[in-house]
Amino acid sequence: QVQLVESGGGLVQAGGSLRLSCAASRSIFSLNNMGWYRQAPGNQRERVASISRLGSRNYADSVKGRFTISRDGAKNAMYMQMNSLEPEDTAVYYCTAETNSGGGTVVHWGQGTQVTVSS
After folding, report:
1. Is residue 71 within 8 Å of 63, Cβ to Cβ?
2. pLDDT over 90 at 3, yes or no
3. Which of 37, 49, 110, 116 shows the smallest number of beta carbons within 10 Å?
């Protein structure tokens, strides 16, 4: 099991920046993939970015070049720097982490943090 707590959301004008943080209750290097998802009202939840245990990063096309995912093993934390924010980025952002359990994969979710981008 792992508990995840997000922080750093808020209200920002278009073109601005925010940095989301995700604090994990155990070593992030004991986890498999970690990532950020988002869900806007009326939309399906979508994966925004992910980072593997080995450090490989992937991004949704909509955020490439604007968002950067990173992590800090000493702090058991993952981050997402979001630059050049657009109103379309408005959503609740969730931190996720995968663990192995009984031969399968379990995805753990944080409670979410609201990001609102005004035009």
Report:
1. no
2. yes
3. 116
| Pair type for strands 57-59 and 113-118 | unpaired
Tokens of 76: 């058991």
Distance (Å) of CA 94 to CA 87, 102, 103, 112, 114: 18, 25, 25, 4, 9
48 contact partners, CB below 8 Å, separation of at least 6: 35, 36, 37, 38, 59, 60, 63, 67, 80, 93
Decide if pLDDT at 103 tops 90: no
Q: Is the pLDDT of residue 100 over 90?
A: no
Query: Coil, strand, or helix at residue 76?
Result: coil
Cα–Cα distance between 93 and 115 in angstroms, integer? Answer: 7
**pLDDT band, very low/low/confident/very high, at 85 (cuts 50, 70, 90):** very high
